[in-house]
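Q: What structure does this chain adopt?
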Amino acid sequence: MKIFLFLGLMLSSYSYAQSGPDHKGGMHDGDHHGGMMHGGGHHMLDKASLKLFFEPLPASIIDEKKNAALIALGKKLYLDPRLSVNDRIACSSCHQLDNFGVDSQPTSPGHEGKRGGRNSPTTMNAALHIAQFWDGRAKDVEEQALGPILNPVEMGMPNEAAVVDKLKKIDEYKSMFAEAFKDEKDPFQYKNVGKAIGAFERTLLTPSRFDDYLKGDEKALNDTEKRGLQKFINMGCATCHNGVAIGGNSYKKMGIVEPYDTADLGRFDVTGIEADKKVFKVPSLRNITKTGPYFHDGSIATLDEAIREMAEHQLGRKVGPEFINDVKAFLSTLTSKGKE
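A:
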């Protein structure tokens, strides 16, 4: 029954975003009287309905005590530029732990200063996603961690063997790999680099005030933030940005209603399926006020513009300053507590 109600709410939100006389993909005003429920937006969802869209972060998704040695190794590898061909680029170069898991650049420079074609997404809460990378080509953070190391633009190591040989020559890693993989005859394997980094990334959860609100603390959000949440849902934003990560759990085409101009074919490059052209993983909105610039290409500088563009291209709606400010207020509640 719960799943049917959830689907009904999702379809209702999307249908409303598409509604209007003789709708043919054109734009509709989505800021009438500052509300989105047929101009009102004052009928707040009850908590039971709200939890059909969202769920709070779990306390943990990895046994940190049991996996302490693996996590410690993973953190060291994550921060170590020696994983790159010229000892200059680490995972943390693009995914900075003190900057919400991003580098705040449209695209990131690699070992020679050349830039990739896509924005570096945050590693915070990434382990909760359906898959990794904008096109979903890696099934989990363990697999994802291995990609950039061998990417010729990013970290530039020539092959797996070269990575393993390099690590074997670093004394501190000898004991760390042995401890983390004590049941393996040969702990120095390339796949174990990914296992360790992935284990560390599974600790990068960022509980927020919104989680407190979902758990029943009514005072965790102020009235403006609650109003922004209501507009976010009524507009149809939660059709894609839902679940524990507020996104990250589905793929959608950029430009569902109004075409979005991009040469990036997205998931099509992975699947070869025509319908996957310009399809990307829906990003998580956790910490979104801190992780700009936005979109797969990092082309959108501000969150105001991102909200406006998403409303237009994904929902066919025009939104004004009042809607944007209220939704931004809600999105600010998704920032890691103590770092707002």
